[in-house]
Amino acid sequence: MGQWALHIMVGLSALALLHTYLIYPSLMRWLARGKSPNQDVYHPESNWPQVAVIMSAYNEEAVIEEKMAHLLDLRYPEGRLSIFIGSDCSDDRTNDIIAPIAAEKKHIHFFPFQQRRGKPEVINELAGYARQQFVSDGIDPIFVVTDASVMPAPEVLFKLVQHFQNPEIGLVDAHILHTGMQQQGISEAENTYISGEVRLKHYEGLVWGRMMGPFGGFYAIRARYFSRVPPTYLVDDFYITMRMFEQGGLAINELDAICYEAVSHEIQEEYRRKARISAGNFQNLTTFPHLWWPPVNPLQFAFFSHKALRWLGPFFLLLILAGSAVLAALGNLFWQWLFAVLTGGIILVPVLDQLLRKAGLHWLPLRGAHYFLAMNLALLTGFFKFIKGVRSNVWQPTKRN
Question: Does 391 have pLDDT greater than 80?
Answer without folding.
Answer: no
